[in-house]
Fold this sequence. Notes:
Blueprint: H1 3-57, E1 64-71, H2 73-77, E2 82-88, E3 99-104, H3 111-124, H4 136-165, H5 169-173, E4 176-186, E5 191-198, H6 204-212, E6 223-225, E7 243-245, E8 263-265, E9 328-330, E10 348-350, H7 400-412
Parallel strand pairs: 1-4, 6-7, 7-8, 9-10
Antiparallel strand pairs: 1-2, 2-3, 4-5
Helix pairs in contact: 1-3, 1-4, 3-4
Amino acid sequence: MAQTAVLEMFMEEIVGPVRNRVLLHWEQLYQANRKPLKEAFIRHFDKLCREVAELQSIGEKGAIGHFTYSMLRTRLQEGRGVYLVEASDETWLFDPASVAGEYDASWAFGYLDELQLLLEEKRQRPGSPYAGGISRPELEKLLLRESQHGHQYVIALLRWAMPEAMLTEGFRKLEQCGIVEVRVGEYLDISESVYRKDSDPADETEIRKWLAERIEGAYGYGALERLDLTGGDYSEMDFRYSAFRESAFGGSSFAESNLVGTVWEGCDLTDTEWNQGWLHGASFQNCRLVGALFHRAEAACGLPDPGKWEIPGFHEISFAGADLSEAEFVLAKLRGARFTGAKLTGAILGWCDLTGADFRGADLRGTNFSGSCLIGAQMDTGACSLLSERPEMPELPFTEEAIMDWLKEEHQQ
């Protein structure tokens, strides 16, 4: 059999299934340890910023506009998951005096050892067609390519950690450019934005015009700050991993939009519509969402398919500290959602999957949980005692039309 055919068969019959098994286990480890990993990264970022600020104080470095985290495959070959970190000015890659450092992301690549062990076992098994067809150097090259999955975990962690990292004293001490962006990628290769902060004033008229153009692929990974964009139709748009800060969107529609990983900070989202939107990993902490509609919203945490690894699992959606008075969640998938400290007075959470949701500290006066699954949900003692032992979500006894009729009746009460 030709060498190329042997390698293709090895990838399909051996590598694919083994990778899936290993990464499903790795996903569990990541989810169990992501909070201390985030805390460790924030300490690293704070220390880096303090070092840069010290250089700025003695005139050896100007304002910072970019932080770049670059995976070094040569270090991975040596068994070290080290990223090169560079703090640079607004010219980014063309800054001749960027400040360099390191971030140890070895935690993200430990699965490679397990993967290598299992693949070697398959390769060397007596009678295996791969014993002489897959050499050790080829296996090493294959494992280096498999490092892309660990790199995805680094991206996921940094994207999750950056909003808090930007609050550190070290970052606040920095002299900053109008736009500050954090990117993660491979050294001198494609990188992905995980955080963007734009302090320069924007023209609201121009922003509205730009959004109205609905340019495909233009609105993800961005940042909109301090804008009045009330009453807008932003439905069926792709805003994945964008940040919205201190802006007003009252009465706007984001129905059927891709809002995965979006961050909403200090926004007024009164009477907004999010029906059938993709909201996995979104954060609405401390936002005003009075009367907002989340019918059939998709925001479950974890892997989309628990038996198949394709990307790192989504973090939980967060409404911590948000005002959700009179909001409606109907037939929404909110597994693991955080409602800690939220105001849910008069809100409807009907026929939703709220498995493992956290309602501790939330104001649940008049909250309607009819038909919802609350297995593993956390609530303050006595806050909702009648629902704390609710059984598994039953098969819906009604059609969707009947559920909507039920909702109308609730409104009339």
